[in-house]
């Protein structure tokens, strides 16, 4: 039975950066409209069922209420939403157990990071509704639904997916968390509002995904490595004063970043962090560091599998129109 999972993060794109920057806001009604488009796309591609995470604000339920003629079989996962990251973890873990062929995710880089902890080899198709959207696509939900269903149905081959690197945060010899885009060592004493607003509070940055259109700490990598990184490397940047670049830390916020050292680090190589009170993961401060903690970073190639929407749609259209004039 061919299934597609659907995860809607109801709180993505709502953090303090709406007050400290020009970051946009996608309200729940707009997310519901995106969900309706996704479901119509999935329906058109012949998937047997959509497994849907029940979200705290009822976004998916509202979308389904507004689709009375939907022929696609769907069901909500049997779980009580708590309105925090555990909803995504529990939903994705269940979907993987149910052997869904792909999972569509509405959120930002942080939502993808959370999902990737339990997604294994199941392909993800993230749609941008967050703040730092280096991984997610700015794409119409209909096309996303079609692409995800095509992967789940086996209508396209594995070449339309790729696997991300990940950066592991290791404290006292134990892997504590991971980042998919960037990991930053900061001098903020607490997680607090989570956003990294002041560039002077960053001491080091590790960047695994370099794209020309990145924002956040990843934008440092966009400047230093505009042609990208080798597949077996991540970028380690020590903040200082030897030279300066311009980086986009948040929407509408372009600032100078002083750099002391830049080096490419191979996969599997552990690098100690010398000075940090909190660790930023993919745009938000997530982990607090205490006296006596020994903090290291190591990258590997076991990040999530991501669907390349452009390749998936191109292959699908080529197959559909193989006999076209």
From TrEMBL:
- SUPFAM superfamilies according to UniProt: NAD kinase/diacylglycerol kinase-like
Kinase as UniProt keyword: yes
Q: Which residues form a coiled coil?
A: none
Q: Which GO terms describe its molecular function?
A: NAD+ kinase activity
Please, which domain of life does this record's source organism belong to? Archaea
Keywords noted in UniProt: Kinase, Transferase
Signal sequence coordinates: none
Q: Does the keyword Transferase apply?
A: yes
Q: List the GO biological process terms.
A: NADP+ biosynthetic process
User: What is this protein's record name?
Assistant: ATP-NAD kinase
């Amino acid at each position: 039975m061919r299934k597609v999972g659907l995860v809607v993060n109801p709180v993505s794109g709502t953090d303090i950066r709406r007050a400290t920057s020009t970051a946009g806001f996608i309200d729940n009604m707009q997310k519901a409209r995106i969900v309706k488009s996704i479901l119509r796309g999935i329906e058109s591609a012949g998937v047997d069922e959509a497994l849907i995470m029940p979200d705290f604000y009822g976004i998916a339920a509202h979308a389904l209420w507004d689709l009375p003629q939907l022929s696609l079989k769907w069901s909500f996962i049997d779980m009580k939403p708590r309105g925090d990251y555990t909803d995504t973890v529990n939903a994705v873990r269940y979907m993987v157990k149910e052997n869904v062929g792909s999972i569509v995710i509405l959120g930002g880089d942080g939502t993808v990071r959370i999902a990737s902890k339990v997604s294994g080899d199941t392909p993800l198709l993230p749609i941008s509704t967050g703040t730092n959207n280096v991984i997610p696509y700015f794409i119409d939900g209909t096309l996303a639904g079609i692409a995800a269903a095509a992967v789940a149905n086996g209508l396209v081959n594995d070449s339309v997916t790729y696997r991300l690197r990940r950066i592991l945060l290791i404290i006292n010899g134990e892997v504590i968390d991971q980042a998919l885009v960037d990991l930053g060592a900061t001098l903020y004493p607490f997680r607090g509002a989570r956003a990294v607003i002041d560039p002077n509070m960053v001491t080091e940055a590790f960047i695994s995904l370099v794209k020309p259109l990145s924002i956040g700490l990843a934008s440092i990598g966009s400047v230093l490595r505009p042609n990208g990184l080798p597949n077996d490397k991540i970028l380690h940047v020590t903040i200082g004063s030897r030279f300066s670049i311009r980086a986009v830390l948040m929407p509408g916020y372009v600032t100078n970043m002083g750099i002391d050292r830049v080096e490419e680090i191979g996969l599997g190589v552990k690098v100690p962090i010398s000075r940090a009170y909190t660790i930023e993961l993919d745009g938000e401060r997530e982990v607090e560091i205490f006296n006596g903690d020994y903090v290291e970073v190591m990258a590997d190639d076991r990040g999530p599998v991501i669907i390349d929407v452009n390749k998936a749609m191109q292959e699908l259209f080529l197959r559909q129109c193989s006999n076209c004039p």
